[in-house]
Amino acid sequence: MDETGQQFLNRTKHCNLGPSDQYLGKPQPPIQLEYDKAQPIIKLPKPSKIVTEFVDSRKIVEQRISLRKYSIEPLTMDQLSYLLWCTQGVKKVFQGTATLRNVPSAGARHALETYLLINNVEGIKPGLYRFLALEHGLIGVSLDQDIADKITKACLNQNFVKSSAVTFLWVAVPYRMNWRYGERGYRYLYLDAGHVCQNLYISAESVNCGTCAIAAYSDDELNQLLGLDGKEQFVIYLATVGSK
């Protein structure tokens, strides 16, 4: 039996770690990946302006399931903005070195970026986009007509990826985490991805949408489609969303 997993756990124990780059005084990585400033940003509705109905939290938790079949009703931009706010919304920036968000993260490192495969959202052309958490807006990555088919294929032909209104693709930026925690930071990346996805499940349920998390995909194919090198940045988790 392959012991790769056990070796990873052993090698990332505190007793096996050297000093982190933060401890060594090396400059920390940026709190958000760079983007082309000449590229237009699709501004999303301000979260403070979005009104949601009161839903009992116990009811939301108890009726949460993984949903793979969605209605043809599109998501509104308000709904999309709300879901992004609940999963990666920035509440406060600390002198450009850290952010306080609506999800927990080890050491407030928040080493995830959000990409979106938009299929059926009012006012937004279908395609692949990246969410800019600090600006609370979107920039286009690919508007190719077959991008949904390509991403679905990379997700091992799970067809609800392209029948969803939107599929969230979370991308890990490991050095943002490992700068503080060394190789143990890889553990925290996966924990953080779980926090984010659970917030998506709960927030989607509160606006009468369903969600299904996805961990089965071709790493290399998906990273290539998003323009990632698979090392400094890589896809770590996905989830589909659609109206019930």
UniProtKB/TrEMBL annotation:
Fetch the Pfam families from UniProt.
Answer: Nitroreductase
Q: Which domain of life is it from?
A: Bacteria
Name all Nitroreductase domain ranges.
62-242
One MF annotation (Gene Ontology) recorded for this entry: oxidoreductase activity
Q: Which residues form the signal peptide?
A: none
Q: Which InterPro entries does the record match to this protein?
A: Bacteriocin_Proc_Enz (IPR052544), Nitroreductase (IPR029479), Nitroreductase-like (IPR000415), SagB-type_dehydrogenase (IPR020051)
Q: Which CDD domains match?
A: McbC_SagB-like_oxidoreductase (cd02142)
Q: What is this protein called?
A: SagB/ThcOx family dehydrogenase
What is the organism field in this record?
Desulfosporosinus fructosivorans
What lineage does the source organism belong to?
Bacteria, Bacillati, Bacillota, Clostridia, Eubacteriales
